[in-house]
Amino acid sequence: MGGAYSSPSGYTSRRRARRWPWVVFAIGIALGLAVEGLVVVGIYNTVRQVGKATCLPSDFPTYQGASLAGLHVYTGTDGSSCDMVFNSEDSASQVTDFYTTRLDQGDWQTDAVSQADGTVTFERRGNSGVHGTLRILGRGVHSTFEVVLQSGR
Fold first, then answer.
1. Per-residue confidence (pLDDT) for residue 50, from 0 to 100
2. 72-73-76-79 Cα dihedral, nearest 10 degrees
3. Scanning 17, 90, 120, 153, which has its CA 20 to 30 A from the CA of 98?
4. Which segment of 4-8, 42-46, 98-102, 133-137 scores lowest on mean pLDDT?
């Protein structure tokens, strides 16, 4: 009989002959789950990297604890712009205080601060062609702020 197993007693059993498809099936399921796990880990790492994405210079002050809510980069023949939106658990006044202090240090300088509309304008000391605007919007005890940095215009 094709695929049958004959024991020393002469009894023929088809049971052992059909066990191998289940082993192959189990190995296939295990491999599928392993591949799916790798895909999930890859997606998780990609999402984490997107959260760390930035188009701002490395020496631009970073507000600790703020989460990235939006990012837009424009590059053209007339210059480039970086537009990033962040959310913070801190108040608008805390974010404003941080940036008005930090944007007056190093290679950055504050040009103007408007408490009326929550806007801070700034530029690079070493290159006034790199300038920007920080807009801070209070949301109760939380805040949202947008950094728009332009160069070459």
1. 43
2. 110
3. 153
4. 42-46
Q: Please tell me the distance from the alpha carbon of residue 24 to that of residue 15, in angstroms, as a whole number.
A: 16
How many residues comprise the chain? Answer: 153
Lowest mean pLDDT among 18-32, 68-82, 87-101: 18-32
Tens digit of pLDDT for each residue in 76-89?
888 899 999 999 99
Q: How confident is the model at residue 141 (pLDDT cuts 50, 70, 90)?
A: confident
SS3 150: strand
* Beta-sheet strands, E only, within 64-118: 67-76, 79-88, 108-114
C-alpha to C-alpha distance for 53 and 47, rounded to whole angstroms: 10
**Region 57-151: CATH code:** 3.30.530.20
DSSP state of 138: E
Structure-block tokens of residue 74: 């424009």
Identify the pLDDT of residue 38. Answer: 58
Q: How many CB atoms lie within 10 A of CB 36?
A: 10
Compute φ and ψ for 127, nearest 5 degrees: -160, 95
Q: Are 63 and 137 spatial neighbours (Cβ–Cβ below 8 Å)?
A: no
Question: Within 10 Å of residue 17's Cβ, how many Cβ atoms?
Answer: 14
Helices (H), 52-119: 92-102
